[in-house]
Amino acid sequence: MAKKKKRLTSQQEFDIMKLVLDKLLWLGFIIMGFGMYKMAESGVFLNGIWYIVAGAILLILFIIFMVKEYEMLK
């Protein structure tokens, strides 16, 4: 006997997506904050700028993913 899979409602899918994206966006801001800490700690601009750029790229990728996912749900 095969078990029937339960299907999520669109509201439940959206809530799960919000939780996941929230955690990933926090990760991007933490990476950028670490870059600011590295710049303040060493006093050299280039020591932390790479972390800030990486965090910004991560945030932009998540925004693109979120827009594509939102358009698919419409």
Could you walk me through the main structural features you see in this protein, from its secondary elements to its overall organization?
With 74 residues, the chain is mainly α. It has one domain. It is built from two helices and no strands. The protein has helices at residues 10-42, 45-73. Helix 1 runs antiparallel to helix 2. The protein starts with 9 loop residues before the first helix and ends with a helix.
Strand residue percentage: under 5%
- In angstroms, what is the radius of gyration? 18 Å
Q: Based on DSSP secondary structure assignment, what is the total number of beta strands?
A: 0
Number of DSSP helices? 2
End-to-end CA span: 35 Å
The helix content is over 70%
Please tell me the total number of domains.
Answer: 1
What are the defining features of this structure?
74 residues, mainly alpha, elongated
Describe the structure concisely.
This protein is mostly helical and 74 residues long. The protein has helices at residues 10-42, 45-73.
Question: How would you summarize the topology of this molecule?
Answer:
Elements: H1 10-42, H2 45-73
